[in-house]
Write a structure and sequence with these properties.
Blueprint lengths: L1 H48 L3 E6 L5 H13 L3 E7 L1 H12 L3 H5 L7 E6 L6 H12 L4 E5 L2 H42 L2 H9 L4 H37 L9 H31 L9
Antiparallel strand pairs: 1-3, 1-4, 2-3
Helix pairs in contact: 1-6, 1-8, 1-9, 6-9, 8-9
Length: about 290
């Protein structure tokens, strides 16, 4: 009978520890994902900005030497990420493939123009700077027109600003919720031992002596939870890197190390503080209050 009760107590203890570790791991994982979003928000924004292209169309009278010189100057320009010359013949071929019909056959000529498609570095993809670049290029006599998706640039800039604010707000809210959830789990585990705490106090044990084993136990659980969360974060990172290789999420080892270290330290810190205050609460209760 005694052995059966002892087994039951061990199972109950393991279940309590498991719930604490699981809650810590899940919450820290969510915080880690938000941390990844915050750290890579600029990188993701830059990636989308650099997908916007500017098309420079030449007049039919434009000389080959003028086109070559412009292509070289654009490639060397501080705002250019890439520059690609597209001949009118190549443009006609792509257009025919897109619509599934050769329009030159019934028009009798190729109405398209030679062009250069450039993508800009992310810091130059703003409505103001792009207008300056367009004005500078349009001033050249051999250029017919310069086009880009103007509404998209404005919309992208506004949305990136809004998303950044929301991500920071969500991070703050989730951090607060994380502390509450972990604190609740640890308080419940200590609550089940409130009579043991009061018994030790009644036989003369000091508050520091009573708190110490609870703090060390929950710090160990916090370490385990943080390690589980970091393993899950690493798996998520590798999956994201495989799905979106252009974001290069694994390139910045310093930031990633700081993130994993922050998750680890946060797990220990929250476990320590939650255990300290939860144990302190039960230490300050009167005997008759233990039943409520």
């Amino acid at each position: 009978m005694a052995q059966s009760f002892e087994t039951y107590q061990k199972r109950k203890l393991i279940s309590s520890y498991f719930s604490v570790v699981l809650s810590i791991a899940l919450v820290l994982f969510l915080l880690g994902v938000l941390g990844l979003m915050v750290l890579n928000a600029k990188k993701m924004a830059d990636h989308f900005k650099e997908q916007i292209s500017v098309s420079i169309f030449f007049k039919d009278a434009a000389k080959e030497v003028e086109i070559n010189q412009l292509e070289k100057s654009l490639t060397a320009a501080e705002y250019t990420k890439s520059a690609n010359f597209v001949s009118k013949e190549e443009a006609a071929k792509k257009h025919a493939e897109a619509i599934g019909e050769d329009f030159e056959e019934f028009l009798g000529y190729n109405p398209l123009k030679n062009s250069i498609d450039i993508t800009l570095k992310s810091e130059f993809v703003t409505p103001e700077q792009m207008e300056e670049i367009v004005a500078e290029l349009s001033a050249k006599k051999y250029i017919d027109s310069v086009t880009y998706d103007k509404p998209l640039v404005g919309l992208l800039s506004d949305n990136i600003r809004k998303i950044s604010i929301w991500v920071l707000a969500a991070s703050a809210i989730f951090t607060f919720i994380a502390v509450l959830l972990i604190n609740s789990s640890i308080r419940l585990s200590i609550y089940s031992k409130r009579f043991i705490i009061k018994t030790m106090q009644m036989v003369g044990a000091t508050k520091t002596f009573i708190r110490r084993p609870f703090i060390w136990t929950n710090i160990k659980l916090g370490i385990i939870g943080a390690l589980v969360a970091n393993v899950a974060l690493i798996a998520t990172l590798f999956y994201a890197e495989k799905t979106f290789p252009e974001l290069a999420l694994l390139d910045d080892y310093t930031l990633l190390t700081m993130l994993f270290a922050s998750v680890f330290v946060l797990g220990i810190l929250i476990a320590f503080l939650s255990t300290y205050f939860a144990a302190q609460r039960f230490l300050n209760l009167r005997t008759d209050e233990l039943y409520y």
